Description:
The protein has 2 domains: 39-100, Rossmann fold (3-Layer(aba) Sandwich), CATH 3.40.50.150; 106-211, 3-Layer(aba) Sandwich (Rossmann fold), CATH 3.40.50. The longest helix has 14 residues, at 122-135. The protein has helices at 4-14, 28-37, 55-61, 74-84, 122-135, 165-172, and strands at 44-48, 66-71, 92-95, 107-113, 136-147, 154-155, 158-159, 176-187, 193-203. It is α/β, with parallel strands linked by helices.
Amino acid sequence: MMTKKQHWEKVFTSKQVDEVSWYQQTPQQSLDFVQQLALPKTAAIIDIGGGDSFLVDHLLQMGYSNITVLDISAAATNKAKQRLGNKAALINWVVSDILEFKSRIKFDCWHDRAAFHFLTTADEVNAYLTLAQQHLTADGKLFIGTFSTDGPEKCSGLPVKQYNETSLASTLQKWFKKIRCITTDHITPFKTIQNFLFCSFQKISIKNGHS
């Protein structure tokens, strides 16, 4: 059995950027979310499972200057670095399993498109959400894109956990309050359709002043 890291290193070393199902030249839902939140250009943004996604390219074009990209695969982040050229130096790259992530940085925005749904046990989900709330500022925003209950049951050969608006909001309710949700169809490079649920959340501030 391959480890999670070995699995993803194999995926990103054996496939071109547009040969994976999650490929998006323009991650429109994510960009809409950033614009709707009216995040200042200095906002600290982290992209979980960002790999060789094009979100970072668009954020740089929009003028954002404090961007972290985390992925378990070094091959994935290396592809993005090569694509960005000199601009890659503007990004904080982190190669880590998200469940092992540690940072002194507090983020204003936590973005995750299609990483969260690979966490299929309650322990993994709880560990992830604990990390997210610990690493977000008191007023931090979280954006999660997962396969909906009408979406695939597997991705890249791995099982995923599907969500609808109610189940995702319930899963996050300890630390996050739902802002809005949409469902949308993603057309893969292979012309198949994947139904996604995208939801934005506000971190809940603890009443005693701690967050």
